[in-house]
Amino acid sequence: MRAINGACMLLLLSMMAMGCGGGGTAIPAAMPNEHAENKASLDRTNAAAINKLELCKPDDAYPDRYPAVAGIMDAEVVQRVKTWMTNASWQNAEVSMSRPPDLKLVGTSTDPAVSGVRETFAIWVSPNKRNYEIVVEGRGLYGRMSERDSSRLRKWIESL
Questions:
Q1: Domain boundaries defined on the chain
Q2: What is the Cα–Cα distance from 146 to 114, expressed in whole angstroms?
Q3: Alpha-carbon distance 51 to 75, whole Å?
Q4: What architecture is the 40-159 domain classified under in CATH?
Q5: What span, in angstroms and rounded, lies between the C-alpha atoms of 149 and 93?
Q6: What is the pLDDT along the chain (160 residues), one digit of tens a residue?
Q7: Is 96 in contact with 140 (CB distance < 8 Å)?
Q8: Is 140 left (phi over 0), alpha (psi -120 to 50) or beta?
Q9: Which distant-in-sequence residues (6+ apart) come within 8 Å of 72 by Cβ?
Q10: What is the pLDDT of residue 155?
Q11: What is the model's pTM?
Q12: What is the residue-wise DSSP string for the chain?
C-alpha cells in the first residue's frame, strides 16, 4: 500500500511540474540540441512526391475547419514553396501551440503511381510577425522559417 501511495505521489508531482502550455509560440516536448539525432528535415515526409498544394484558411463560422481557398498545380510554384519550407530550421519535436494554425497547406500528388500521398503543414505566424512556424501534422516535425523565406511565402499567399 505504501508503494502505491508513493507511486501516486510521484505521478502527481510529475504532472504538476509539467504544467499546462501557454504563451505565443511552440514548446518542444524535448529540448533541441546540436546532436545529429535531433537534426530533422522533410526527408521523412512525402514532401518530395507532392505536386499539388491547397491553401486552407479557417472558416469564420467553424474555426476548427480549414476549407481550401486556393489550389496550386503549377510545378514551378509548388517546387518554390516546397523549397522555402525545406529551408526551415526543422526539429524532431512534438509541440503544443497556444492557438489554432493561421493557415494550412495541404500537399498531395496527382501522380497515380504514388496515390494516397498527403501531407498537412499547419502554419502559424510567429509572435514577432516576421517568421512562419510550421508543424507537419502527424510527423513530430516542427520548423521555423527564416524571415526571408517567410516573407516570400507571405507575399505568395497574399497574391492568391
A1: 40-159
A2: 31
A3: 6
A4: Sandwich (2.60)
A5: 21
A6: 455 444 434 433 333 333 333 334 444 443 444 444 557 899 989 999 999 999 999 999 998 999 999 999 999 999 999 999 999 999 999 999 999 999 999 999 999 988 889 999 999 999 999 999 999 999 999 999 999 999 999 999 999 8
A7: no
A8: left
A9: 52, 53, 54, 55, 78, 81, 160
A10: 96
A11: 0.75
A12: -HHHHHHHHHHHHHHHHH----SSS--BSS---SSGGGB--GGGTTGGG--EEEEE---SS-TT---EEEEE--HHHHHHHHHHHHTSEEEE--B--SS--SEEEEEE---GGGTT-EEEEEEEE-TTSS-EEEEETTTTEEEE--HHHHHHHHHHHHH-
Residues 68 and 106 sit within 8 Å (Cβ to Cβ):
yes
CB 107 within 8 A of CB 53: yes
Give me the residue label for grid cell 476548427. Answer: 64
Q: Which amino acid is at 24?
A: G
Q: Hey, what's the cell of 7?
A: 507511486
